[in-house]
Amino acid sequence: MSTKKQSASLRAMTLGALGVVYGDIGTSPLYTLHEIFLPTSGMPLDHHHLVGAVSTIFWGLMLVVTLKYVILILRADNNGEGGAMALTALAAKAAGSTPRRRALILTIGMFGATLFFGDSVITPAVTVMGAIEGIEVVAPHLQPYVVPLSVLVLVVLFAVQRFGTGAVGKSFGPIIVVWFVMLAVVGRKSSCKVYRGLVPMSP
Fold first, then answer.
1. Mean pLDDT of 172-183
2. Which burial class, exposed, middle or buried, applies to 128 when counting CB atoms under 10 A from its CB (0-12, 13-18, 19+)?
3. Residues 89-93: what's their mean pLDDT?
4. Which of 34, 57, 51, 9 lies closest to 170 in space, CA to CA?
5. Where are the alpha helices (DSSP H) in the chain?
6. In this structure, what are the phi and psi dihedrals at residue 78, rounded to the nearest 5 degrees?
């Protein structure tokens, strides 16, 4: 394969990874921040608590992605395959012929798989609802349409999944790039405003 083709293939895979992997991670703060500052939580929405919440989310994501995935998961693959069940099979092989040890590892693996399936059921609905609920801020009269719009979006998303992860990743990759750029721009402007409010500016 030529260098030009390798470069194009790398760009396509990077874009697909943005759409599939980092799209899930990057949209998590949508509903996390919403839940943190609910009136029932008693958390005041001020500068200090907002910075603390965002810092906790940021470092939590960095530690999970770096420690769990980059350092551990990516180094432990079962013939190129990953996931809870593949890693459970790999751990069961390493356990040797001890029945009790193998049974314990398989039980833990099945428990991890059930957590994954539970997350797979909850996350799409919570993410879509968290995103569409934002229209209530701009147009409160649209609140009755939040649930129907969420259902419509979920139906469309599950309908296009039959085209495969690659096609979905390529479709959502550019959207996630725009999303991250928007977060960077909005975050930079907000931090500049906060900095100017905290530090007296010279005339």
1. 78
2. buried
3. 78
4. 9
5. 3-17, 23-36, 47-63, 84-94, 99-132, 135-138, 146-160, 165-198
6. -105, 90
> Is this model's pTM higher than 0.85 or not?
no
How do residues 25-40 score in pLDDT, each as one tens digit?
666 766 777 778 877 8
Q: State how far the Cα of 15 lies from the Cα of 24, in Å rounded to an integer.
A: 14
In this structure, how many other beta carbons lie within 10 angstroms of the beta carbon of residue 1? 7
Closest Cα to residue 198, out of 48, 37, 50, 33? 48
Burial class (CB in 10 A: 0-12, 13-18, 19+), 176: buried
Cα separation of the two ends of the chain: 60
- AA letter at 55: S
